[in-house]
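thought: fold this chain, then report.
action: predict
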Amino acid sequence: MTEFDRSNWAKKEFTQLYRDNADIYIVERKRMFDLMKSFYTHFHGNREKTKVLDLGCGDGVITGELLTVDNNISATLVDASGDMLAKAKERLGGRRNITFIKASFQEMHGKDMPGEDYDFIISSLAIHHLSMTEKRAMFKLIYAHLNEGGHFMNIDVVRAADDTIDQWYMQIWEEWMDKKKSMLGKKGEPSREIIDRYKEADENKPDTLEDQLSAMKEIGFGIVDCYYKYGIFTMYGGKK
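observation:
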């Protein structure tokens, strides 16, 4: 049994719960999508065809958002969850130049997947499941499969640099979820229980933003920066 198979993400009921509540769980999710599309359009929107790699694609929402600003992209979506990939195929079914690969990040390392190079590599809320050693290895793999001038962007959660800051981050996350549930007229489980589950789950291995940016610079990424941050939720990346 692989590490992924032991995680909550291998459970169909858990992935369904996440999809149903993603806009509640993820602080300013739609705002981050808008920033991602702005970044993509600014740096890659003038090309005839851009090759995109979506790592930990989930239900395909990231690629779906990119297609709203560039309908000509060629995209490869990778996820270890068969259930998530099935939902991604439902979302993107019938579109040309879309490839789906079922593989965990560990399997990608072992097989040097995906085996081709890309102009824009994006990951959303997946890389924090890797240890720092595994993150560095993933960054190296991503760098190796970026075309010259290509960009990598990661939308993810990070660890606070200090416990007192972490307490505040958890407070503003709880406040966000409470407000969002009130706006949507949804009750569901208490926000504090969602936070406790995140913090207690062995599969969540967030590292500080500083450590991850430093690792990217050491690997060779240029113009490494944080594009957005709200508590533990952040967007960062770099250029080859």
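thought: worth noting. The chain has a mean pLDDT of 93.
final: tokens above.
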